Amino acid sequence: MNKAASFRPEDLRNVVLLGHGGTGKTTLAEAMLHRCGAISRMGSVTEGNTTGDFEPEAKEHQHSTNSSILFATHERREVNVIDTPGHPEFVGYALAALPAVETAIIVVSASTGVEFNTRRLFHAAGEAGLARMIVVNKLDAVSPAVLRGRVDELKEAFGARLHCINLPTRGGKDVIDCFDQEAGQADFLSVKDVHRELLESTVEADDAKLEKYLAGEKLDLKELRATFVKAMAQGQVVPVLFTSARDEVGVDDLLHILVEEAPSPVNGKRRRLLKDGELTEVACDAGAPFLAHVFKVTNDPGLGQLAMLRVLQGKLDGDTTFVAGADKKVRKAGHVLKVEGRDHPELDAVAYAGDLVALARVEDLHVDQVLHDPAAGNGFGAVPVAYPAPMLSLAVESKNRGDDVKLSQSLSRLAEEDPTFKFTHDPLTHELVLSGVGDVHLKILLERLKNRFKLEVSAKAPTVPYRETIAQKAEGHYRHKKQTGGAGQFAEVYLRIEPLPRGGGFEFKSEVFGGTIPTQFIPAVEKGVHDALEAGTLAGFPVHDVRVVVTDGKHHPVDSKDIAFRTAGKFAVRDAIAKARPALLEPVVNLEVSVPEQFLGAITGDLKHVRGRVMGVETLPGGYALVRAQAPLAELGSYGGQLRGSTGGTGSFVMELSHYEPVPPSQQQQLVEARPARKAEAE
């Protein structure tokens, strides 16, 4: 590929495609590239040859499994596009893209209307301060009457600030401009009525134009568009457009609106960073010292780590030096690239403020790091993004024992790329535990391990992170005495254990007086207490929500030492817990399940089978229902598959930790009885 041209900040447009799965975002991105001449022919998701979905997992499943960055030139301006996955379990990629752009295009399928992720991402883009546009795609798949219903549904979901700025005509083979009330006849709605609503809503964003309108003066098309652009950038109006991406209908109009009316980095919402812990706005100034934000990291087989940047200020070329975050090491940019799916053409000059580019072969850059001029100090940080917590886990191990080190290294790379994926080595079970948003998310991660790193693993449900606690106050005592011929060991500890409120964690206090336990040995007692609490006493799970108070003890001037008091503290707290009515706690999660209304009865029944409690049901536009519930995490290992089976693949859910609560007696007894088997397996 030839080198990529440089564009000034005012000639850049940065957009992200958001929406539920199956709305046609990747096909729309492909059509945009084709209409701009960036590709010679459109690829197809079903054929696995689109520019954006180049990873094997996306080709296999025929839907995006990662965000992809694309760019094209239209009307002498550059449009940077971030295409994001629509499956709710991959929402982290969409949220990570929001700080890099000025405009969010929420894509809605004319066939299915407003779905779960549509709402979620529309509001996320608004909270990020982005200009928003809604594209109703696949207009060729439904009748004009259905399209009219989609407009009503969108306004019901997102309010009266939504306005159609074009409408389908000629049976969905073209679109006409609603700013011009004499443009022609649409397939549904009256262009004149839509124009009037558009005009009345737009002038409210500009006092001078409002006075002019109320005085009966006519606004020309150019004035109306300029006022609308201002209102859109401020979030006061949201344009609705229509496309059939597969047939490239409406795509030219979308591109024209993007380059002429979507905000540039200069006049869009200013980026915000943390500077010495304080929020500060950053103007898009190409003449200021270099400043950039890492919004995505990938690992390319040929180029190594690729860090995707939004240049916030200044300019970037191969000779630019910078510091990453709080690191003091000065680095050199080297190769500055544009990104077009799998391809990475080198930039022919400099990247100006506002552009989206990538750095290759610059190791140890991480998502949400801020790169800055070495002379600017080290107080820069990104505003944290609220990603969904990874709540579903798998315990894995290499099928080939010699791959253990390679497996850890590969998982580290995947964790750098995906802000919603975590992995840990559980010190209690000695399991390597992968945690993701859901079972589909984890399935794709395992496929990436195999496809990219040639690693195969065996997976099973991990040990659920139960906790132990106590129900009442109790006293404990232990006397440790050991004589081995030389210097012995001696320590005696009396202590008290007390329950704390749920979520109280752990507290340690000493009420020892008179030196019965010398001060220097109190930390050793605390370490022993920690040893016992981490190992548990009832079923082998950590003990939480307790206060331990050391009250008395004895020591020996020769034989007392740290190890003796650590041992005494450990067994004294075990003695106390045994008398304090120990109990097991299980993690309970909040669930939000989105399903078509006809499956509501089946879903509420399924939730009862996993000990779920329905907390509320909300009716959504488009025939969907949102079920809010709580359920024990231990019961949800296969819930994703169960939900897909009950809803024909149309249901989705998200979850996050709510609280811990006591395990029912029958389950507690089973867990206690299973402790020897778990211990033997771990050993």
Radius of gyration: 30 Å
- Percent of sequence in beta strands: 25-35%
CATH-derived topology of the largest domain = Rossmann fold
> Which structural class should the secondary elements be placed in?
alpha+beta
Give the low-confidence spans: none
Q: So how many helices?
A: 17
Oligomerization status of the protein chains? single chain
CATH class of the largest domain: Alpha Beta
CATH architecture of the largest domain: 3-Layer(aba) Sandwich
The CATH superfamily name of the largest domain is P-loop containing nucleotide triphosphate hydrolases
Neighbour order of strands in the largest sheet: 2-3-1-4-5-9-6
Number of domains: 5
The end-to-end distance, rounded to whole angstroms, is 55 Å
The total strand number stands at 34
Using the alpha-carbon principal axes, give the shape: elongated
Characterize the largest beta sheet: strand count, sense, and whether it forms a barrel: 7 strands, mixed
